[in-house]
Amino acid sequence: MRSKSNLLLLLGAFFILGFGALVLGIPKGEGATVKRGEKLYMEQCMNCHGKDGKGLGKLIPGLHHAELLQKERLICAIRYGKSGPLEVDGQVYNGQMPPNFALDDGEIRDIVNFVYAQFAEIPISLDLPEVQDKLRNCAQANPRLQW
Amino acid sequence: MNLSPLLMAVLLLIWSCGNGNSKAQKEAGHLPFFGEPMLIQNDRGIADTLWPALPPFTLASHTGDSLTQLDLVGKIRVADFFFTSCPTICPMMSAQMLRIHERFGSNKEVVLISHSIDPEHDSVSVLADYAEKLGASAPGWFFLTGNMDLIFSLADAYGSFAEKDPNAPGGFAHSGALTLADRQGRIRGVYDGTNPEEVDRLILDMERLLAEAPDYGPEAVPVGLDYAQ
Fold first, then answer.
1. Under an 8 A CB cutoff, do A60 and B132 touch?
2. ipTM, 2 decimals?
3. Is the Cβ pair A60, B91 closer than 8 Å?
4. Which of A48, A50, A58 is nearest residue B133 as measured by Cβ atoms?
5. For the purposes of burial, counting CB atoms within 10 Å of the CB of A140, is it exposed (0-12), middle (13-18) or buried (19 or more)?
6. In terms of C-beta density within 10 A (0-12 exposed, 13-18 middle, 19 or more buried), how is residue B12 classed?
7. Would you call B132 and A58 a contact, using CB atoms and an 8 Å cutoff?
């Protein structure tokens, strides 16, 4: 009996949380950045990482891995690209993701927000100052790559 | 009243079966032939219709052996033109080719051939590494490299396109076409390899081609390329 009511409680909690996330998770302003980000993702990333973000064999990593979705890592990769060995979940990738200097800071924010909304376990949304702050960090970490 | 849509459907079915006898409708089950027929004439008129087949070739495969048109005799093939360092559409083409490989990989009558249009960089070992990482295996799928002029001309013959272009991303301009050819090397379909729905259609067309009698249609003659190999 007791475990049954616990289960019901749990289910109820999940329902409310899930529904709440659905309603609150993407409020108005953030919906717009995600929408713009979706369009940009389909133009700039989908060809390699796939529409569903699953990547390609052992050539291109999927974007579901929490490790790759660390804010700075994601943001830096979009602008500066990524090459050389990269290990995720025991799989070593050694491909080349080209840099993309055509995207401005706001567009990078939009792509990041779409990637989080679509592929991350817990969607988060970044604002422009935070993205620009991370971009400054990767510019410092990649002095060779500053153009 | 509720039965009437069903009744209509049954009637339609009967009607369409009854009309299925015309030659045109029987033919509708076959894929078209691409290219122009070659009419061989004698002094009394047309003696025979021949169809151009894909040209002969010899290229190095990622397995370390060479592959020629003779290895494809009696098999249907899907061909594409790509390069391993391509930053644009190639990963999409490879992803779609992989779908086809997963579906037909164990069928000995199906061969996929991916031609590198950057043979200087894409050596046999680079292609072997790419194939392994993609999850592609011979003899269902070969990655080919060799003489660049030959490969560019093959692209043209397959209804695709490739050329060196310093302004294009990665240094090459090329098409994302996947070309389907039958057991006699005649082109039967060209599909957009970056569009999953077109590739769904390609997969259905491959089933149709596999079900077709090998000697169906006009006799094929390979049209050669002027390349010393």
1. no
2. 0.77
3. yes
4. A58
5. exposed
6. exposed
7. yes
pLDDT at A18 > cutoff 60: no
B88 near A CB under 8 A: yes
Give the range of the structural domain holding residue B176, as residue numbers without chain letter: 38-222
Find the CATH number of the domain harbouring A68.
1.10.760.10
Q: Is residue B32 part of a domain?
A: no
The full DSSP string for B119-185 is: TTT--HHHHHHHHHHHT--TTTEEEEE--HHHHHHHHHHTT--EEE-TTSGGGEEE--EEEEE-TTS
Q: Which of A98, A86, A93, A90 is nearest to A60 (CA)?
A: A93
Beta bridge partners of A102: none
- pLDDT 10s digits, B60-90: 999 999 999 999 999 999 999 999 999 999 9
- Least confident segment among A49-58, B18-27, B127-136: B18-27
CATH code of B93's domain: 3.40.30.10
- Domain annotation covers residue B6: no
* pTM of the predicted structure, to 2 decimals: 0.82
pLDDT band at A133 (very low <50, low <70, confident <90, very high): very high
Domain count, chain A: 1
SS3 content of chain A, % helix, strand, coil (to 5): 60, 10, 30
Inspect the interface and report whether the beta carbons of B134 and A60 lie closer than 8 Å.
Answer: no
